[in-house]
Amino acid sequence: MSSGKGRLLSFFGGLLLTEATITHNEALGPYRRLSLRGEGLQAKAFEPGDKLQLLLPGDDVRTYTPITWEKGETSLLVYLHGVTTPAPRWAQAAAPGDVLRFIGPQRSLSLPPGPVVIVGDETSIAVAAAFVHARPGQVKALLSVKDVQAARDAAAAVGLASPELFVREADASAHHQRLAEAATAAGAGAPGVSVGLCGGAALIQGVRAALREKGVSSVKVKAYWAPGKVGLD
Ligand SMILES: Cc1cc2nc3c(=O)[nH]c(=O)nc-3n(C[C@H](O)[C@H](O)[C@H](O)COP(=O)(O)OP(=O)(O)OC[C@H]3O[C@@H](n4cnc5c(N)ncnc54)[C@H](O)[C@@H]3O)c2cc1C
């Protein structure tokens, strides 16, 4: 079903929207890597952690993270958490030559220069990869995932070479503790190290609380999705 925001954008958005053409759509298990090219991209400034708001077919608006932004080209990694919602339907069907319109890049997970620890889930592989491209050797990514091998393959394909992957557990509280421990071992809480926490709202809440218990309170948080919410941003 189209959203009010999407209908407005579709109608009035000529000036706000940038246009790009899909050049590749690569299937990576439950992920799709989409490459885009467009002259309009060259004029836009980009920082790692930025987002794009995509106007999808049917005027649905969904948010994704550019991994790189160079010479009029970018790429996205879309996690197919299901097959019936607008974003996975679009990502599976997108074909070279299709035109995509979007707003952005806009600031989203802005982190000061220097080393970063990213804690997230399948939807955070792209943002972790964006920081790796911008700050090689300065990024540790800790990801809670359903399928470790699929996440490892998708991460490697977008330049995130060695994320620490944690299979989701039935005991969410123990899982969040484990991620918080791994985050502190990776440098969270140390001077000059920024922490970005993103992905599902429950993961963020749980890991944030567990980090607080460890005395780590300076954390940048961005919820990417929540059960029952649509097109969260
Ligand atoms: C700033 C920002 C950057 C993002 N970057 C990325 C990115 O680079 N890659 C990426 O894959 N995602 C990213 N996301 C998350 C993505 O926008 C959401 O998962 C979005 O809801 C997917 O749209 P949809 O049409 O599939 O589902 P919607 O129609 O928006 O949601 C329908 C239902 O699906 C469920 N749902 C949504 N997402 C998930 C999920 N990941 N896992 C399980 N259930 C889910 C919820 O119950 C929701 O109510 C980002 C989100 C934000 C806000």
Layout of secondary structure:
Layout: H1 4-12, E1 18-28, E2 31-37, E3 51-56, E4 60-64, E5 69-70, E6 73-79, H2 86-93, E7 99-106, E8 116-121, H3 125-134, E9 139-145, H4 148-157, E10 164-167, H5 172-185, E11 194-200, H6 201-213, E12 220-225
Parallel strand pairs: 8-9, 8-11, 9-10, 11-12
Antiparallel strand pairs: 1-2, 1-7, 2-6, 3-4, 3-7, 5-6
Helix pairs in contact: 5-6
This protein binds flavin-adenine dinucleotide.
Residues 51, 62-65, 76-79, 81, 85-88, 108, 123, 126, 222, 224-225, 227-233 line the site of flavin-adenine dinucleotide (FAD).
CATH superfamily of the largest domain: Nucleotide-binding domain of ferredoxin-NADP reductase (FNR) module
Task: Give the neighbour order of strands across the main sheet.
Answer: 4-3-7-1-2-6-5
Structural class: alpha/beta
Average of per-residue pLDDT values: 94
**So what's the CATH class of the largest domain?**
Alpha Beta
User: What's the alpha carbon Rg, rounded to whole Å?
Assistant: 17 Å
Describe this structure in words.
The structure is a single chain. The protein is built from six helices and twelve strands. 42% of the residues are buried. Strand 9, helix 4 and strand 10 form a beta-alpha-beta unit. It folds into two domains: 4-106, Translation factors (Elongation Factor Tu (Ef-tu), domain 3, Beta Barrel), CATH 2.40.30; 116-225, Nucleotide-binding domain of ferredoxin-NADP reductase (FNR) module (Rossmann fold), CATH 3.40.50. The protein has helices at 4-12, 86-93, 125-134, 148-157, 172-185, 201-213, and strands at 18-28, 31-37, 51-56, 60-64, 69-70, 73-79, 99-106, 116-121, 139-145, 164-167, 194-200, 220-225. It is α/β, with parallel strands linked by helices. Helix 5 (172-185) crosses helix 6 (201-213). The protein is globular. Flavin-adenine dinucleotide binds at residues 51, 62-65, 76-79, 81, 85-88, 108, 123, 126, 222, 224-225, 227-233.
